[in-house]
Write a structure and sequence with these properties.
By secondary structure, the chain is mainly beta. Helices cover about 10% and strands about 35% of the residues. The protein is globular, with a radius of gyration of 18 Å. The structure holds zinc ion (ZN).
Length: about 200
């Protein structure tokens, strides 16, 4: 996991959003190879092992995931609107093989959210082992591609306003996401802005 991602991680437990305290044991360049993340609110701790932050126990099963063609990488980049470099992009489960080509070609930081060690963290790629949580700060992602079993409820919170969401055709569009386009393979949506709180106006006396 890249050191720059540390500030944007949040405890996935059911309490108010809280940052995590990192105890780093070993680094390799700018990547944390081993360490612990502790939550000051609920006292849970999460291990960083072999460059992956583990918010769940990694699944053992190996899934055969095809590597995307250059056209498929470009298609995903277009749907996620990656014309401008920089920022964090979430890639959930079956989208993990897109991480390295996307990071390399479009200069974004890909945060792979998976339940297994599907990818070796590389330059511009971090791996978070998760089950149904999205342990990221509010609004940190500029876009996310959702796989099967995606944490639908957390997508709106983790995306910045206007951020893109891509999902396979069979997936539901999460709440708070406006559908932009859909074909037989996938759909793309955009995060709606937060509702502006009603301001009560006091009449001057
Ligand atoms: Zn906590």
């Amino acid at each position: 996991m890249h050191i720059d991602l540390l500030d944007h991680l949040r405890c996935p437990a059911d309490h108010a959003e809280c940052w995590l305290v990192a105890a780093i044991e070993r680094m390799a360049d700018r990547h944390v190879e081993r360490g612990t993340l502790g939550c000051p609110v609920c006292r849970r701790s999460y291990e960083i092992q072999d460059f992956a932050a583990c918010f769940a126990t990694p699944a053992e099963t190996v899934e055969n995931r095809a590597h995307p063609t250059p056209d498929e990488v470009t298609r995903l980049a277009a749907m996620l609107d990656l014309r401008v470099p920089g920022g964090f992009v979430g890639l959930h489960r079956e989208w993990a093989p897109y991480a390295i080509p996307l990071a390399f070609s479009f200069d974004v930081h890909c945060v792979v959210l998976d339940d297994r060690r599907s990818i070796r963290p590389a330059e511009g790629v971090s791996l978070l082992i998760v089950d149904t949580a999205l342990p990221l700060a509010r609004g940190v992602l500029r876009g996310i591609a959702l796989g099967i079993g995606a944490p639908q409820h957390a997508v709106h919170r983790a995306l910045r306003p206007g951020g893109r969401v891509v999902g396979a055709a069979g997936l539901d569009v999460p709440a708070g996401i406006a559908l932009m386009a859909r074909d037989v393979r996938s759909w793309v949506g955009e995060r709606l802005p937060d509702a502006t709180p009603v301001v009560s106006l006091a009449r001057p006396r």
